[in-house]
Amino acid sequence: MPSGSPTSGVGRVIAGRYLLLNRLGSGGMGHVWLAHDQRLACEVALKEIVFREPEPTGEEREARVARARAEARYAAGLRGHPHVVTVHDVLEHEGLPWIVMEYVAGATDLRGLVERRGPLAPAECARVGLAVLDALNSGHERGVMHRDVKPANILLAPDRTGAPYGRVLLTDYGISVRPDAGETRYTLASVLVGTSGYLAPERATGGPPTPAADLFSLGCTLYFAVEGQGPFERDSNLAEVTAVVMEEPRPPVRAGALGPVLRSLLEKDPGRRPSASQAEAALSDVVTPRAEPYARTRTDLGSQPPWAAVAPAPSPPAPAPDGFGPVVVSPSAPRHRREVPHVLRAVLAASLGLLLALGGVWYAMAHQGGGGAAGKALPYGSAVGLARPLRDGDCVLADWPGARFSGTPRLRLDPSCGARVPDGQVMAFAAAASAAEAREKGPARCAERTQEIRERLADVRSLAVVPTGAGFEAAGRRTACLVLGAHGPVYGPLGAHRGLGSPFTDTANMQRRDCLRTRSGRDADLVSCSGPHDEQVLGFTRLGKDVTLGEARTESDAACAKDVPPRDYGFDPSVYTSGSWTSQGPWKSGTHFVVCTVRKQNGGTMEGDES
Fold first, then answer.
1. Which domain, by its residues, includes 134?
2. Is residue 546 assigned to a domain?
């Protein structure tokens, strides 16, 4: 019987565990259900795969089911990201896959919101774009493309302060089973390419999925959000695909300061589109325009959505939400002052106490105005001591006045980013309109912007280096967001600052999903996962305090096989086995962290995406 028949409705129990309560909607994957997890006594969302009739049979059916399992596994790799709907599990029921996902209460998708209440203001649209870009970039770093970014796949939900659309989530992450859906999708060898009007021109002509293609789709989505219609919207799906490939997008009329960002994202040539970091900077300028000594284009607030007038009143300071940071725009007031629209004031107001509870996020702010010998204000004051503002990728040495992460550290730069054993590295920035705003919101923003990299490392914390009032301009009007080793140095560069081919001097800066080339018994280089590699990092475990480093090198493989088994990540246990890496750093710090990897049993080379 085809899935989607009445027998799959309310009251049915899936896999002996999930009781279907009601249908939430239908979309790209088929049907989405609210379900009760009878084992954990909580609500989840279930996506039911709905095949077209006649249903595929034999090898084609098996291939599609296997593809759904693999794609759900990739999405599950992003669990915990603040802007991705979490995938908990993929299961089979009566021969078909079901995806078990986070249930987001009170959520509405971007398409439905715009259709009901009108286009978003440019600054609010840019805020949504930053959150989606953050989610996409996290996937791209893992080699996972979304391939179907569109308004219907972006959820807006209440955040912890009660702001109705404060939380932004990207869903339907790369699920490529071909469902029976209202929107026409285009497939190549049974692999989903995208939705008409939102896929990149190179994808429409058969090219491979790339980060640049996802950014084009993001540009189409933001265009729809701010204009109320897609840039290539036509009367038929075929006409939309033709327009994507052959025609220029309609000139935007409501986009204001967002217009140049949209034009750059919608470039036909993927090589001319901005990188993720360039797009982030451009969107950030729309959200929080930078004050400059000369006139500049300001955010256009004339295209406020019709529902802005009924926005909630400002909220008092509250815990940081799961969504992106607050939107601060510059109205036509003197340049030294910025007002926050009512609908956005409740988005985020974080307290240092909450950040400490959530993972030891500290802020370093000098308590003195701080001037240099020549009377020039130091960016972060005399306690921090830096004479110049921190830059992206700067490695630092941190000297604490007492216990680690207690008080304000004095920072020194390590230009070599390795030779002097750095404690951490600058990974992001948080712009602010004033020194007071930097003090109030800088730590929370840094916690958000470093969350993804911190989750990929074994033992790190966030540190927000906040400028003083006197040093605010010298610091570039922004807080520097560092990632520091929680109990010891990181020994080298982190994240995207590590170059392919670079050797690891310690396991402290090995990250989940890193691919390694083993040069000798205990030496490894970072290599691309799309090419030949010997091992891939899956996660971490810890050995007992009484285990010596020498003992760890014989016990760590077994510990990883128990705590981080490769089969849980989709690796065939008849082909693959657990590996591990240990180093002196975790034993000096007393944490005894072990890096757990997967490798082939026969010692052969892994090639491309084998998971």
1. 123-167+187-287
2. yes
Domain final position from 485, 507, 535: 485
**Among the options 109, 134, 148, 414, which is catalytic?**
148
Backbone angles phi, psi at 231, to 5 degrees: -70, -20
Residue-level pLDDT at 608:
64
37 is catalytic: no
Task: Please compute, for residue 27, the number of CA atoms within 13 A of its CA located in the half-sphere on the CB side.
Answer: 21
How many structural domains is the chain composed of?
4
End-to-end CA distance of the chain: 32
Per-residue exposure over 90-118, b if at least 16 CB sit within 10 Å of its own CB, e if not: bbebeebbbbbbbbbeebbbbbebbeeeb
Reported as a single tens digit per residue, the pLDDT across 387-413 is 999 999 999 999 998 888 888 899 999
Percent of the chain with pLDDT over 70: 75
> Directed axis angle between helix 276-287 and helix 211-227, to 10°?
20
| Of 139, 96, 136, nearest in space to 222 by CA | 136
Tokens of 396: 């630092």
Q: What is the pTM of this model?
A: 0.48
Query: Which one, of 130, 590, 65, 44, lies nearest residue 328 by Cα?
Result: 130
Model confidence at 54, in pLDDT bands (50, 70, 90)?
low
Residue 536: inside a domain: yes
Q: What is the CA radius of gyration of the chain?
A: 25
Report pLDDT for 292: 42
Residue 87 near residue 99 (C-beta atoms within 8 A): yes
pLDDT tier at 63, thresholds 50, 70, 90: low
For residues 330-361, b (16+ Cβ closer than 10 Å) or e, as one string? beeeeeeebebbebbbbbbbbeeebbeeeebb
Is 156 found in the same domain as 276?
yes
Assess whether 79 and 157 both reside in one domain: no
Written as six digits, the tokens of 470 are 């006197």
Quick: pLDDT tens for 174-216. Answer: 543 333 333 333 343 334 356 889 999 998 888 888 999 999 9
* 163 inside domain: yes
The model's confidence at residue 534, banded by pLDDT at 50, 70 and 90, is very high
- Among 287, 309, 338, the domain boundary falls at 287
The Cα–Cα gap between 391 and 371 comes to 20
Question: Is the domain of 457 the same as that of 518?
Answer: no
Mind spelling out the 3-state secondary structure of 86-107?
Answer: CEEEEEEECCEEEEEECCCCCC
* φ/ψ of residue 243, rounded to 5: -65, -40
Amino acid in the structure at residue 198: Y
- Alpha carbon separation from 117 to 114, 226, 305, 365, 425 (Å, rounded): 5, 12, 7, 42, 43
Element holding 362 (H helix, E strand): strand 362-364
Inter-residue contact 190 to 178 (CB < 8 Å): yes
Residues 6+ apart with CB under 8 A from 54: none
